[in-house]
Each structure stands twice: as structure tokens, then as C-alpha cells.
Design brief:
Blueprint (H helix, E strand, L loop, with lengths): L9 E6 L6 H13 L3 E6 L4 H11 L3 E4 L13 E2 L1 H4 L6 E5 L2 E5 L1 H12 L8 E4 L3 H12 L5 E4 L3 H11 L2 E3 L9 E4 L18 H6 L2 E4 L8 H8 L3 E3 L1 H17 L5 H11 L2
Parallel strand pairs: 1-2, 1-3, 4-6, 7-8, 7-10, 8-9, 10-11, 11-12
Antiparallel strand pairs: 3-5, 5-6
Helix pairs in contact: 1-10, 4-5, 4-9, 9-10
């Protein structure tokens, strides 16, 4: 059991449109295991400017940023790390003496997992989404050497802009052709979201693909992931992505890097 909370206990938090317990359980598990005097709490907000101002004013050490705040929060921070600057999207804010610095650890996690799973950069791909997480994914693909791909987004303005920024194509919906890599970077399939039971790509496209990635972490087995696994595809889940990005957040907040075994135990504990 953790030590008693005092006035010196460090506070970290998250902001999400639809908060979950995943980050809360991950960070608090490691604080207790490593004997660190921190607590972590998830929040949502209807006043983003005030929420970010509260991080500064109250001395909150760090904040994880999730949809739909990843881009909108940038105007309220003092400094933007290269990891977030390159894609104009934030998932982590660190408060050091009332100076707020923004990072993006989603990018790091996605790029690492693509490499670890041996997904070939010669594969064609389709990424569904054009928001902050989609930007991290598309940037990771570009920087991993993927040359042929399409951004799938109903919003023509944001979808085309994202595709053009990284040198890929854009379509409002997946049309002809069967990409070898499918990536869902939208809330489709998210528990508590608007369409929790929907598969984010048509079944024939999943059948034709060699690998599938879903950024949705709750539930770990989204409709897309369940379908891909039933078809024996290589799969990267949102649970895996969130573990790696949360680990990098933890290091930024505390200056302590857990072992791989500790991070895996925290990840297992955090899953719904």
C-alpha cells in the first residue's frame, strides 16, 4: 500500500473527451511499485484553456492529452518539443516550474511497434482518420520509410491536408484496391464511443490485408482487432500502443524508467 498522501505528493493527470481508467491504473501501479510519491487522476473538460491553466497554476507535474484535445491544447503551452512540433499534435504536457512543455509519445510508440513487428515499409497502407492520433501515425509511417499510402477521412479539408503534408493520397472512404496495412486512428470501435460495435474497415479489406493496427485501447479487442485475429492477421492493438506511450510519459513526469517487466505488469493491470 502506498504511503499517505501529503502536501508534497506530486499530481499527474490526463484530459480526454471520454476518460478511461487505463492511464490512471498504469501510472498509479508504477508509482506504488517504485515507491514514488505521486498520484494520477483522469479528467475531462468543457473549458480546455482553464484546464491547461490549472495545470500551471496548481503545479500539476504532467498531463496526458487524448482526443479531442491533442491539437487544440497547443496554443496554451509555452514550449513544444520536436516530437510534437513536427506533427502539430500533443499527447503529453510536462510542467517544470510553471513552464509547460508539450511532447508526443504516440509517434514514438507507433514507430517502434511497426519496426518490432517487422511490417515492411514496402507495404501499401490506409490510415483512417485525420485528427491528432492520425497525424502521429502518418508521421511514424513516413519516417519509417513507407512510400505508398492513403489517408481515409470524410473531412476533405483535414484529410487532404494531412495526406499532402506527408506525401500520400487522400480518399473520403476506402475505395478500390486492398492495402497491405490497415490502421484505424479514429474512435470507431471504442467502448463508450458513438459506434462501439462498428468495424472501422470493410471486411473484404481486412481479409486482403496482411497486418492491422487499431489505436483504440478500450476495449483491447475492438471489433476490428477481433476480426483481424480471426483471420490470422498480424495485429498491433491500441493496448500495446498505449503501454509504450504511457511508459515514455511516465519517464518524462518522474525521471524514472521502469524495467520492461514492470511496464508489462502495469499494462496488464491497466487493461479493462
Amino acid at each position: 500500500m502506498r504511503a499517505r498522501i501529503t502536501k508534497d505528493t506530486g499530481l499527474c493527470m490526463s484530459l480526454a473527451g471520454n476518460p478511461s481508467n487505463i492511464g490512471t491504473r498504469f501510472h498509479n501501479y508504477l508509482y506504488e511499485e517504485l515507491g514514488l510519491d505521486y498520484i494520477y487522476k483522469a479528467f475531462t473538460t468543457t473549458d480546455l484553456a482553464a484546464a491547461i491553466g490549472g495545470i500551471r497554476a496548481l503545479g500539476i507535474r504532467g498531463c496526458g492529452i487524448s482526443m479531442p484535445y491533442k491539437e487544440a491544447c497547443m496554443q496554451y503551452v509555452d514550449d513544444i518539443d520536436a516530437s510534437a512540433q513536427a506533427i502539430q499534435s500533443v499527447n503529453t504536457i510536462v510542467n517544470t516550474d510553471a513552464i509547460l512543455r508539450a511532447y508526443n509519445t504516440d509517434y514514438i510508440a507507433v514507430r517502434r511497434l511497426l519496426g518490432e513487428r517487422g511490417i515492411s515499409a514496402t507495404d501499401t497502407f490506409a490510415v483512417r482518420g485525420s485528427g491528432g492520433m492520425a497525424k502521429a501515425v502518418v508521421a511514424a509511417l513516413r519516417d519509417s520509410g513507407f512510400r505508398s499510402g492513403t489517408v481515409i477521412a470524410r473531412n476533405a479539408q483535414t484529410g487532404r491536408a494531412l495526406a499532402e503534408q506527408y506525401g500520400y493520397g487522400w480518399q473520403p472512404r476506402l475505395q478500390d484496391g486492398h492495402p497491405e496495412l490497415l490502421i484505424n486512428a479514429t474512435p470507431v470501435g471504442m467502448a463508450g464511443g458513438p459506434v462501439p460495435d462498428e468495424v472501422s474497415f470493410p471486411a473484404p479489406a481486412v481479409e486482403a490485408a496482411g497486418a492491422v493496427v487499431d489505436v483504440v485501447a478500450a476495449p483491447p479487442l475492438t471489433p476490428l482487432v477481433r476480426l483481424a485475429l480471426s483471420l490470422h492477421k498480424r495485429v498491433i492493438t491500441g493496448a500495446e500502443i498505449i503501454k509504450l506511450q504511457a511508459l515514455e510519459q511516465f519517464v518524462l513526469y518522474t525521471g524514472v524508467r521502469p524495467t520492461d517487466e514492470q511496464a508489462e505488469r502495469a499494462s496488464q493491470f491497466s487493461r479493462p
